[in-house]
Amino acid sequence: MLTLVGEDRPGIVAGVTQALFDGGCNLGETSMMRLGGVFTIMMMTQHDGTTQSLKNIVQPVAKRLCLRFHVDNIEGRLHDHVEPEVRISVFGADRAGIVAQATGALADAGFNILHLESDVAGSEDKPIYIMQIEGVAQKGVEAVRKALETVAKEGIETSIEPIDTLIG
Amino acid sequence: MAVLEILTYPDERLKLTSDPVERFDQRLLSFIRDMEDTMRAGPGSVGIAASQVGRNIRVVIVDVSGKPDIKNHGKLTLVNPEIIQWDGLAVGREGCLSVPDYTGNVIRAEKIVVKAQDETGGQCEYEMEGFEARAAQHEIDHLDGLLFLDRLVSRRNDLFRRKVYKRSKHVNPGESNQEG
To answer: What ipTM is given for this predicted complex?
Structure first.
């Protein structure tokens, strides 16, 4: 797993992925997004060499684009998707602890998070926090619904809906 | 019973526009039976289009009756289907027999009215909503060479987009017995 972060600017994805391609690497699932002015990349990178030889491929382009990076040697599996069955939204006036509180309650209710995105919106003096979570309710949807009710009592709004994936 | 081979992306044949059915004969009926067998053989599939098995004719089957607690018309064979009314928008997750191992969010009309012929050529019209309407739109897209991949929206759109609802009057009271 190759992780890179650095101040956002045009050309980061193109520069990094071209260097990897030229170095004989093959990419799998990736996540790339701008978070608060910083561009973040996590990529499943297939490389027939050592951790160090992959670092050697990335080093020049990371330096040129002012990116920090690191490599975790993992056994990544493609075609290993787990379908989310529940979608949860959590939002409210921003304050510290929303994520910890909500996800703590979800974990206790046996909820396994597959995907989470959160954002701070609103204005600078009245920020709001918005979080969208998809995952699997291992102890059932009712348990998750109850857990969210306890979170909602503390000034946060929550909603939960099943994801009924249509296969056609 | 014959389970046909499902074409999978990037097979170019999935991008073809299908031709209207003109002859309603025994051959058509037999092909439709094979389509249904193929749909039932796929895990959890609620629809299939002829183009998914390599026949470019305007035939789809939709059957969401296996899902609990949703409005549906049972198994529907739609020949030369045409969506004549749309209402509302909703985001939902879709996958496809022709795109294994991937699902994504797609915006579809919440309610539609579909005009079609049945397998013997008789005219019919259905008012559909929710999951069944989504399934019909997904399958009819196949007839125009479109996959759900052509309509993906990002997960980030989700929270606000799915609240965009429009309510409207019944356009076709005669077909609204599903409300009961």
So the answer is: 0.82
